[in-house]
Amino acid sequence: MQEKGKALTALYVSVGRELSHYDVRLGTASLVEQSRLTLPYKVQYVWPHPSAPYLYAACSNGAPDARGDAHCAVVLRIDRQSGALQIHGTPVALPSRPIHITVDGPGKHVLTAYNDPSSVTVHRIESDGSIGARVTQRVEPDTGIYAHQVKVSPSNRTVIVVARGNDAKATRSEDPGALKVFGYDDGQLSPLASVAPGGGYGFGPRHLDFHPSQPWVYVSLERQNTLNMFRARDDTLELEPRFIKDTLADPAGKQPRQRPGTIHVHPNGRFVYVANRASGTTLVDGKSLFIGGENNIAVYAIDPRNGELSIIQHADTHGIVPRTFALDKTGRVLVAANSVPILAREASGVTTVPPSLAFFKVGDDGKLDYVRKYDIDVGAETMFWMGIVN
To answer: pTM here?
Structure first.
């Protein structure tokens, strides 16, 4: 997008059904809200078209703990001058609550992952950017237990579905996790491998990202608070990780409901960023108070020889549960979305920590320099998704 010859950087953030648009002012390191758009149902995830001014939004009236009964994908057209959004075409019905959505490299298909039941669909993208017919798969894809993300490889020849699995509970045993690798050809998925170290037990992946130029795939393990690096080989993945790293600054002091989440590789391929999220509470005088934990962005340097990671920073996000964060395409700015309000005991007493957008500058050394945060009123909703489009 261009505005008066200058690159326009837009940030979009969802709260319930609303998708808000902010200008990202790189010179002043600030965010300026511009407009809001209401979608048919709550926004679950959004992905940009690789070359055209469209966003693809997965929507549902469900939630992580509720299946819902109305689900759709919506195309949003981005105004090239202002970054404002408008609904483009007719929303397309989806079979269940979508949890992740992406677009392939050429921008010919949109792929959507669903957690309950675990599955993935592929739809064609028409020449005008609208969503076309669903691609009937010759073999129904096995997406494991609790598909949480679907990503197309940089080569556009493979697709990986991240199947998180589930922790054991008093009433059930652990569900194993896996990385389900598929060949990909014109919207068709064909099974290649199921990567599940230890049979998938003690392996709970949530998100992955690809290195931009090397055969290295970085995977955050939600249920283990670790970051794994797998090597891609012959359009699939090796069955065991090359490296396993802790995501927490204090792994021994891990609190309940402490989990990593979103992961992004820096555009220059030299650094990896992972969100750590803590939301555990305890009842004190009839109030649920935050028990502490790490809400930060873990920053790793990548060894250019073999892809191994070395932790260089844990940057506090100055809020609770940074569920999503994003880098702009130049890698100069990172914004983290602290998604939920929570009561916490601070020096001044018990207070509500509000949801917020935390703005960081990214240094040449990959480290994050916190600038400021913008508190967001979410009412009874959650700040569920956020992304940056240049």
So the answer is: 0.96
